[in-house]
Every structure is written in C-alpha cells, then in structure tokens.
Amino acid sequence: MTALDYFNLRLQATISPMDYLKSAKMNPEKHFLIDVRNGPQELRNTTIKGAKVIPEQELQHRLNEIPKEKEIIVYCWDVWCNTAAKVAKLLLERDYNVKELAGGIAAWQEMNFPVSELMQGANQADIDSCGC
To answer: What are the pLDDT digits (tens) for 6-19?
Structure first.
C-alpha cells in the first residue's frame, strides 16, 4: 500500500468535525450521527447535538434504530478510543454506509461545536466498562 492509497482510504473512512458540520448544514437528512461511547452515564452526559445515543455494548440489540439509507457517522471519546472503529466495522459488515468522526467528542468540544446535555436516566443503561 502506498502513502496515497493509505490517505485515500483514511479519507473514505473518516470525516472531520468541520466537514460533518458543513455537510449536515447543506443536506440535513444525509447523515445519522451516533454516539457509541460506553461507560457510566454520568461520564456520557454531554453528547453532540442531534446525535442518537447507542452505546457500543447495546448496538447489536438496537440495529433496527439505524437507517440503512443514510450515511452513518459514529463517534466515541477521542483519538485514543477505538470504540467507534469497532462499531464502524460491525455496521460495514452489515452493509451500512459508515464513517468515523475524527477526534470523537473531545475534538468536537475543543472546537466549541454544539452539544446537548442528556437527562439522567434517559433510556441509557449504566455500563461500567469503556470497551475501548
């Protein structure tokens, strides 16, 4: 694999926060954004505005909530977490069109992009392990 091949594949598999915002603004119905972070709910109480919260550990039982006709964007904690990559792989194996949001919620918050606060007890299982 050449460096060019690598970067082409990387760009096909990821989307930056800036590119996601631009694309979502131009075509709001194109994407389905999913927060796939595991861990205790009190640590996951902030999410990207408009994201569906489906922790990776619940994903197998909630696939019916994910539309196949949209481009799926998944994100986790940060660049050191591979949970979003695990979810992307699982969804790609099931014929979804998936990209990972580069940098996760950490990059999103660093750029002061819009977030939402989740209500305590809002249909979220308290999952103790990260799974990264």
So the answer is: 999 999 999 999 99
